[in-house]
Amino acid sequence: DLTRDLAGRHVVVSAGGTREPLDPVRFLGNRSSGKQGYALARSAAARGARVTLVAANAALPDPAGVDVVPVGTAVQLREAVLKAAADADAVVMAAAVADFRPETYAAGKIKKQDGQEPAPIALVRNPDILAEIAGERARPGQVIVGFAAETDDVLANGRAKLARKGCDLLVVNEVGERKTFGAEENEAVVLGADGSETGVPYGPKEALADVVWDLVAERLS
Ligand code: C5P
């Protein structure tokens, strides 16, 4: 049955955007809504998979029948994804993970000082979770999928990123007004490590989710 082609599989999806705190009231964040990751989770569940959705700050309802693990920061997202990936057949990293976090966290709210210039915010690198899980492969044959939002030289940058991260598939989005961040629609090219290139026309994020699982299912069988 093609519609239950992920039955018996465990898949992990990360969604949303991490928030890296500066103090108890402020954070560095991004514009990811979580909609694409949630669409991926719903689609996989409908196709029969057991789904773990690691959700970073997404203000969206829990999809029915999906195990949702809420996280805040990149470090927390890494912990949750690595734990769930241990017995997963596929991992799809749709979350927008902050590349950097503030070096220090102020336990009390940072105050402005009269007549003083603002203090610069020192940043440190976050772990690259996608590169880590793709490099280590908790299971032989595990399929690892990344996402990339690009504004220019979309395909060339996508190919380079696919190679750098070591994943099997990379969904490359062009960031635009009505697409990607916060939108209901998306348009993408899915690049395969085998050289394949699958165009997904402008449409609902559910349609892109289904193409991603088609390509994952092909690689699992
Ligand atoms: O390098 P870039 O942030 O463009 O890569 C995007 C892809 O890598 C996404 O799949 C994202 O979830 C993942 N990523 C990650 N850990 C990071 C940064 C990005 O897993 N620290």
UniProtKB/TrEMBL annotation:
The segment annotated Phosphopantothenate--cysteine ligase runs over 11-221
Reaction(s) catalysed by this chain's protein: N-[(R)-4-phosphopantothenoyl]-L-cysteine + H(+) = (R)-4'-phosphopantetheine + CO2; (R)-4'-phosphopantothenate + L-cysteine + CTP = N-[(R)-4-phosphopantothenoyl]-L-cysteine + CMP + diphosphate + H(+)
> Which EC numbers does the record give?
4.1.1.36, 6.3.2.5
Positions of CTP binding: D99, K109, P127, D128, I129, L130, F147, K161, K165
Q: In which pathway does it act?
A: Cofactor biosynthesis; coenzyme A biosynthesis; CoA from (R)-pantothenate: step 2/5; Cofactor biosynthesis; coenzyme A biosynthesis; CoA from (R)-pantothenate: step 3/5
Listed transmembrane segments? none
Instruction: Respond yes or no to whether keyword Signal is given for this record.
Output: no
Cofactor binding comment, as recorded: Binds 1 FMN per subunit.
Where in this chain does the record put each DNA/pantothenate metabolism flavoprotein C-terminal domain? Answer: 6-218
Q: Name one GO molecular function term.
A: phosphopantothenate--cysteine ligase activity
Q: Which cofactor does it need?
A: Mg(2+); FMN
Instruction: Please verify whether the record's keywords include Lyase.
Output: yes
What's in the keyword line of the UniProt record?
Answer: Decarboxylase, Flavoprotein, FMN, Ligase, Lyase, Magnesium, Metal-binding, Multifunctional enzyme
Q: Which family does it belong to?
A: In the N-terminal section; belongs to the HFCD (homo-oligomeric flavin containing Cys decarboxylase) superfamily.
Q: What does this protein do?
A: Catalyzes two steps in the biosynthesis of coenzyme A. In the first step cysteine is conjugated to 4'-phosphopantothenate to form 4-phosphopantothenoylcysteine, in the latter compound is decarboxylated to form 4'-phosphopantotheine.
Q: Give the protein's recorded name.
A: Coenzyme A biosynthesis bifunctional protein CoaBC
Q: Which organism is it from?
A: Streptomyces huasconensis
Q: Which residues of the full protein are shown?
A: 180 to 400 of 400
